[in-house]
Design brief:
about 30% helix; 2 domains; 7 strands; four-stranded antiparallel beta sheet; elongated; alpha+beta; three-stranded antiparallel beta sheet
């Protein structure tokens, strides 16, 4: 039995891998000559990984620095912004085709006490570690296509605020869906 020691990200909220960097884990298995840092980047259904050896990179600290560089390169190849936040990918239940934008009916009570239903595009985003932001765009007020485009613009703006950049891989596929909603 090998004494493989993998230091991985803990499942509890707020904990990072013991390397201190997202997506970088330590592997110490001298029996297999596997001593170094394992870099793994995932976006959607695509996973890219690479092992950065201590021996080939001049020690543990320099190998960790190289592993961070490799991680950043892999994220760039996938179109994933450099952030320690979780990037949400595609969901088969999403009917609009744009992550964080969904078509729904909002119920509200009017001044007369009657319940009204308003068709909207609802936009959601992470507003902090344990907060969720939410707003909606009325279809009755703006029309189907315009409301959808406004909702997508809000979502994209929130991504830029949170991640510092838009998640290119998500918006490249979604552009066609946005254009289909033209009135």
């Amino acid at each position: 039995m090998f004494s493989i020691q993998i230091i991985a990200r803990e499942k509890r909220k707020g904990f990072m891998a013991k390397s201190g960097f997202k997506g970088i884990s330590r592997i110490d298995c001298p029996e297999n000559k596997t001593v170094g840092w394992y870099v793994r980047v995932r976006l959607g259904n695509i996973t890219k990984s690479k092992f950065v050896s201590d021996h080939k990179n001049g020690g543990k600290e320099t190998a960790l620095e190289r592993a961070v560089e490799v991680r950043n390169q892999l994220e760039q190849q996938l179109g994933k912004p450099r952030t320690d936040w979780v990037i949400v990918g595609k969901n088969p239940r999403n009917q609009t085709g744009v992550v964080g934008v969904r078509r729904t009916a909002k119920k509200y009570k009017g001044k007369d006490g009657r319940v009204y239903v308003n068709e909207v595009y609802e936009v959601t985003w992470n507003a902090g570690r344990e907060k969720r932001g939410r707003t909606s765009v009325s279809i009755a007020k703006y029309g189907e296509g315009s409301a959808f485009r406004r909702a997508c613009a809000i979502r994209r703006q929130k991504e830029q605020q949170l991640y510092g950049d838009v998640v290119v891989s998500k918006w490249a596929e979604s552009a066609a869906k946005i254009l289909l909603h033209v009135e």
